[in-house]
Specification:
alpha/beta, nine-stranded mixed sheet, three-stranded antiparallel sheet, 15 helices, globular, binds S-adenosylmethionine, binds iron/sulfur cluster
Length: 371
Amino acid sequence: MGIYVHVPFCSVRCGYCDFNTYTATELGGGGSLVRYADQAIAEIGIAARQLQGRQVETVFLGGGTPTLLPADDLARILASIDEQIGLAADAEVTTEANPDSLSAAYLNQLRDAGFNRISIGMQSAVPHVLRILERTHDPEKVPLAVQWARAAGFEQLSLDLIYGTAGESVDDWRFTLEAALACEPDHVSAYSLIVEQGTRLARQVKQGLVAAPDDDDLADKYLIADQAFEQAGLSWYEISNWARDRDSQCQHNLLYWHSDDWWGVGPGAHSHLAGVRWWNVKHPSTFAQSLEAGEQPIAGQETLDRDMQAMEAVMLGIRLREGLDASRLDRDKLAQVIDDGLVQRLPGGQGWVALTERGRLLGDAVARSLL
Ligand SMILES: C[S@@+](CC[C@H](N)C(=O)[O-])C[C@H]1O[C@@H](n2cnc3c(N)ncnc32)[C@H](O)[C@@H]1O
Ligand code: SF4
């Protein structure tokens, strides 16, 4: 099983982002960076009592910007997972990081504390694209942070990229890909820009100030990225994720895609244990109040029946290169997507099917037609 720790703070909010994260102004005095590690540790204590006998194979600190907290806080959170629940000797321990918030000393501290994987939010190497995305980091900072992470001894390094931003030409995207690959990452996540409702980007698009991403441009850029990554020795294993080899695949995310068990610590975090899913209260101050009262900070929960579990397995599994067992799928619907050239039977796959390249461009639609 895995543990996800959500760190709901960012120094500024990027215009496209609708994650459950808060800047100092948005917090308005509720919730606190300073006390956050202790609150997370309190929820880890609750988890430990319910997870007796389970060993944690993956830990993922995400956000928000986990690296806004002092390295010592991240170290304490990880140590508490090990002490209170129990961490496998070869556990994958990742933190997401915003390039702005990294230094060599900080990365050394994280590595010494047991973090062995880092996922850096690069997004783009092109200044005018970063500006539209409202990213504050200097693109030069990314290779520097990568150099520091390697020197600190991080075995696994991943970069997050976004494509399809207004004003990003195909050449800009190629430039970003080259810059990313020059960092020799073990793993890359490349996401098409999503205009999420309620974001500043959504308002700008609505007012005609910024162009919405264009489907054909997104498809072209996906194929260009896939080709560049494959040439550099990174193979796709999930629609938006490429890795150097099996060991470099993100074991924590695979656990989500396989509908395995995980506990999500932090405001708004979701958990899944043996077919029961629950989610925490969303705001950092409500989260803090719950824990201070000695309560588990749950906002709601549901039990997934067999049909829901089967549906989720299809929606998540079809995104993976390893694909799905065809016997889980409706025969006629499968025949249709195979006819349409979106899904193929895997050679030697003993009845398993997976997306074709064209299918990867239409992954969500394929998942819907299979349900
Ligand atoms: C929690 S953030 C990563 C860590 C850190 N906060 C940062 O941004 O550098 C996770 C990733 O989600 C992606 N992301 C967030 N909002 C997105 C959107 N609207 N469209 C596409 N990708 C998005 C970005 O690539 C981002 O790096
Ligand atoms: S993309 Fe990352 S840094 Fe930007 S607001 Fe979202 S979580 Fe924060």
